[in-house]
Amino acid sequence: MKSYSSHYERVKDPTPILLTERDEEIIWAVGRFRFLRSDQITKLFDGSRQGILRRLAKLFHHGYLARPKRVNVQIAMPGFKGMVYALGPSG
Fold first, then answer.
1. pLDDT at 64
2. For the chain: N or C, fewer Cβ within 10 A?
3. For residues 52 and 59, what is the distance between their CA atoms, to the nearest angstrom?
4. Residue closest to 11 by CA, chosen among 54, 89, 53, 63
5. Half-sphere exposure of 19 (CA within 13 A, CB side)
6. How many angstroms separate the Cα of 18 from the Cα of each of 8, 67, 90?
7. Contact (CB, 8 A) for 61 and 48
8. CB-hemisphere CA count at 13 Å for 62?
9. What is the pLDDT confidence band of residue 20, given thresholds at 50, 70 and 90?
10. Which own/partner pairs from 47-50 qualify as long-range (CB within 8 Å, at least 24 positions apart)?
11. Under a CB-based contact definition with an 8 Å cutoff, are residues 30 and 85 in contact?
């Protein structure tokens, strides 16, 4: 696995992936709602929570999703420990 210094920086050379139907649905949902928290995404889609979180990371590193550093308090919620996702340049 490639190392990175921040949860907000993409790895330079991510391992190639093939988009799945679920990946496309996740990207569409994030685009439709503009921002979604990782906990909202894990509730919207079938699969294990950990598996979806790993896939979100891959979609981020490949540029399909973005992790905005500054988000509205209503989206992030005080005490929220997950990530907020938006569409990335490839999304």
1. 97
2. N
3. 10
4. 63
5. 15
6. 22, 21, 14
7. no
8. 15
9. very high
10. 47/22
11. yes
Do residues 29 and 91 lie in contact, with contact meaning Cβ atoms separated by under 8 Å?
A: no
For residue 57, which amino acid is it? A
* Residue at 26: amino acid letter: I
Give me the count of residues in the chain.
91
Q: Is the dihedral of CA 44, 57, 52, 21 positive or negative?
A: positive
Residue 54: alpha-carbon gap to chain centroid: 9
Structure token pair of residue 26 = 């996740």
Helix (H, G, I), strand (E, B) or coil at 13: coil
